[in-house]
Write a structure and sequence with these properties.
By secondary structure, the protein is of the alpha+beta class. It has three domains: 280 residues, no CATH class; 123 residues, Alpha-Beta Plaits (2-Layer Sandwich); 122 residues, Alpha-Beta Plaits. The protein has 17 helices and 23 strands. Strands 7, 12, 13, 14, 15, 16, 17, 18, 19 and 20 form a ten-stranded mixed sheet that branches. It has a four-stranded mixed sheet with strand order 2-1-3-6, covered by helices on one side. β22 and β23 form a beta hairpin. α2 packs across α7. It is elongated and about 120 Å long. The protein starts with a helix and ends with a strand. The relative contact order is 0.08.
Length: 568
């Protein structure tokens, strides 16, 4: 204990000698001790004394009440100041209401919450909300220091310098020291490191009901500095005008002499400490992706309902997200894919790239074996296993999620369609369509009638890279109804409306299959997506796999291209 007091005395003396109050070290000490005396007389804790003196040496705040008291008494004795500080440990600080004074005691409630939620993390970022009345109390206590120095220390050589220094500086924000002290105790209890970029975002709220309306005296001034009003918000009556920023701005304009008529300076000491109100724990989102295949023409991509009426009983996302949510212990999910197919369109080939955003996951990342287990569980659901399958489920770093949205409009897709033409599909018609579609051509698509309720009216140019047609069977009788049916294969720019390209959408898509084939009309009966040309999921390869040694590569087994990640 004596060693601790000695260390505290040395550090505290060094701070007092070199703070901002005066040019002389001796006068700095005398002025600092005078301010401490004023604050202690107003029932403030020693940690808040450091705040008012402008101390930013966080180590000093870690010393407890008894150590700081002994250190100050030691410094006072050695500097011939006839003052001994003897404050009861039961005192609740007038300035911080106990929130800084007893910061470490609030960790217990947070520890229980962390234990209950069981987040698998090593670090967290901490935000805190302290009682709003501290703003008013700090301001009034600073005014009390100034008044007392002017009245009781006006003949001291340091007073003029101190008054100038106090005029130009603000009391140190208590939040910084609360977070530091709270964080040290939290690490001791849980092992969690405080990190501004930590994935777990913790918000601790400390409240003090008895003083929560301290600032309302500023509504009673001759010219009120606060204007409080009641407004209606989300079907409830709420009070507006007393935000922290409003209170801070009002205090800057406050006339202390007028304030004395409406409130006490220094403020009345509290009889109870600020209480723990709540803790909010939110982990940054985790992303898991892969590719899905849809073999059914009755599954929508995501739940599909209009005016509360379900138009498809099942969805692809419904087969996937609940299982991922369970393993990651997340609050919610968001399904994102590289484009979408209609419910009556199958997704075949290598599958459509997708990822799921897992909101507030307690288990942010799983092992490769666990993701393989998830993949198998999704693929073996009795109700869905013949209709929806997934592959290559894996963890996706957040920086790669933009690939999906960019791919919606920048990549290409391949389709296979069963079509009907009003004329038989003759060799001449096949040659005409295949010759036209052998080189890229651009179609102009007005917003389709079927999506007009959700898409803005526009003309969208889209590129058809290749387009071919063939009969269902080579030996079909051209006079039979079967001769009107064919298979069209398309390679198009992402975002092309395939159904409208086939039937023309009442002339809103030009050219279209019917106009190219020189036939009266065409219709699309069934459609399959065969390939989405997007490298997904991304996997960082070892640097040795590239000629460019300093650039990690991205590839996957859907296609064997390898290129620098910077190209994405």
């Amino acid at each position: 204990m004596s060693n601790t007091i000695g260390t505290a005395s040395e550090q505290l003396l060094h701070f007092l000698q070199n703070n901002f109050l005066s040019q002389s070290q001796d006068q700095n000490i005398q002025a600092s001790l005078a301010i401490v005396d004023i604050l202690v007389s107003a029932k403030c804790c020693f940690r808040c004394c450091l705040r008012f003196l402008g101390c930013t040496t966080f180590q000093l705040y870690t010393f407890d009440h008894n150590v700081l008291q002994s250190a100050l008494n030691d410094i006072s004795l050695k500097n011939s100041v006839q003052k001994r500080y003897d404050i009861s440990t039961d005192l609740i600080c007038t300035a911080c209401l106990g929130s800084i004074q007893l910061a470490e005691t609030y960790v217990d409630e947070v520890y229980e919450k962390l234990k209950e939620q069981n987040y698998k993390v090593d670090s967290c970022s901490l935000n805190c909300t302290l009682p709003i009345s501290i703003l008013t109390r700090d301001h009034l206590l600073k005014a009390h220091i100034v008044n007392t120095l002017q009245e009781q220390h006006k003949d001291q050589p340091f007073t003029a310098d101190v008054l100038r220094a106090l005029e130009d500086t603000n009391v140190r924000d208590p939040k910084d020291f609360f977070k530091y002290l709270f964080g040290l105790k939290l690490k001791e209890r849980t092992g969690l490191e405080l990190d501004t970029d930590g994935p777990l975002r913790m918000t601790v709220v400390i409240d003090h009901k008895p003083t929560s309306k301290d600032h309302l005296f500023m509504t009673k001034l001759k010219e009120p500095l606060l204007k409080i009003r009641t407004i209606r918000q989300k079907r409830a009556r709420v009070t507006a005008g007393e935000s922290r920023s409003n209170v801070t701005e009002a205090l800057k304009k406050l006339d202390i002499e007028e304030a004395k008529q409406f409130t006490r300076i220094p403020p009345i000491p509290p009889t109870e400490k600020a209480k723990f109100d709540s803790v909010s724990l939110v982990h940054v989102s985790t992303y898991v992706g892969g590719r899905y295949l849809k073999f059914s023409r009755d599954y929508s991509q995501t739940p599909w309902a209009i005016k509360g009426q379900k138009l498809a009983e099942h969805s692809v996302s419904g087969c996937i997200v609940d299982i991922l949510k369970k393993y990651h212990r997340a609050d919610d999910t968001k399904f994102v894919s590289a484009g979408r197919e209609d419910a009556n369109v199958r997704m075949l080939g290598t599958g459509r790239p997708f990822y799921v955003e897992l909101i507030n996951p307690r288990t942010p990342q799983l092992t490769e074996d666990e993701y393989k287990k998830i993949e198998n569980e999704i693929n073996s659901q009795p109700l869905h296993m013949k209709n929806v399958q997934v592959r290559q489920i894996c963890y996706i770093p957040a920086k790669y999620t933009s690939i999906i949205k960019e791919g919606e409009e920048t990549k290409t897709k391949q389709y296979r369609a069963l079509v009907w033409l009003s004329d038989p599909i003759t060799d001449e018609l096949i040659e005409r369509v295949n010759n036209y579609g052998s080189t890229p051509f651009t179609i102009q698509q007005k917003t389709p009638v079927r999506v007009f309720q959700r898409r803005s009216a526009a003309v969208r140019p889209k590129v058809i890279h290749t387009s071919t047609i063939k009969r269902l069977r080579d030996d079909v009788d051209l006079k039979s109804p079967e001769a009107h049916f064919g298979v069209v294969k398309l390679h198009t720019q992402a975002g092309t409306y395939i159904k409208e390209y086939v039937h023309g959408d009442l002339g809103r898509t030009l050219p279209n299959l019917a106009s190219i084939a020189h036939t009266h009309s065409a219709d699309l009966l069934e459609l399959d997506v065969m390939d989405v040309d997007l490298i997904w999921p991304p996997v960082e390869l070892a640097k040795k796999a590239l000629d460019a040694k300093d650039t990690p590569a991205i590839t996957n087994e859907n296609n064997k291209r390898i290129f620098p990640s910077a190209a994405l």
